[in-house]
What does this fold into?
Amino acid sequence: MASDDFTALLLQQCAALVPENEMKWQWMSHRPGEEDFSVPDRIVGFAARHRLAMRGHNLLWYWRTPDWFKALPDRTSAERAMIERVTAMCRRYRGRVFCWDVVNEPIYIGHGRADALRRTVFLDQIGPDYLDLAYHAARAADPTAALVVNEYGIVYDTPEEEQKRSAVLRLLERMRRKGTPVDALGVEAHLDAGGAPFSATKLRRFFADVAALGLELQITELDVTDENAPAAIAPRDRIVADAYARFLDAVLAEPAVTVLVTWGLSDRHSWIVRRECSEAGWRKDGLPPRPLPFDAELQRTAAWYALATALAGAPARAASRFLPRRA
Ligand code: XIL
It folds into this structure.
């Protein structure tokens, strides 16, 4: 991590850091019992040196699980491997990672289960209790970190997302009732400029329901795709900025929102610009998308000003109780 213009911007603009892919299990482990911590170590070390709060992303995600785990023969070995992974990460970074996305994206309505759980390798191998086992293991290995359920598709005013919001709420209620240690809901906010309908009222009600369970809320992956906005940069940026503004005004009204992370800082490094998301979300005109607060030349976009305005106008709140106290 050389000192370059991007790093300088990061240190000037950000108070927290999250690895986009480098902590995902599949990238860290190619064989049973082996995990390569070298890249995560460097990132966590960088954050510590620069006094950036470090989000842990993620411990378990169906989409980035090692092939060897999927091939394990029985429940016992799957459970053991899952718990070892969670324990090793939480222990190693204890005191330096302030929150963990323990299970990433556990809900999928389309799989048709009454509990709305996504049919993943964890569910298949271990059963619905895999969540409780994973969160308990994380708590045991690091009692200080905030344990997060991170989910996407719960922002917009569509029947699908409304259904998913209530499924997430029911999952969190069940976890609380059973005494499964969960501290926050992570709301991935991969927004779509000029696309889906948005209701600030419904989203705020959902956030209030989550907060009423005693949980914090974190906005974990904010960015805005612009395939439904015009080619010309000025009107396009205005539409993107407007999506940021409307979303942030709604969610920052809830004082239990304690963390806000964009999914990338500049358009120089973004999964949307790299076209790693679904093809349906790609611009048809082939122009590079402009999803983030800085463009590829590291110049502020209208989105940066929308963020600054929203943050300046947001109601005051207590810092997350999980954030390290700064001397
Ligand atoms: C994405 C990364 O940004 C991409 O580089 C990678 O190809 C796939 O994963 N939800 C999450 C993130 O929780 O980890 C995903 O990140 C985006 C969706």
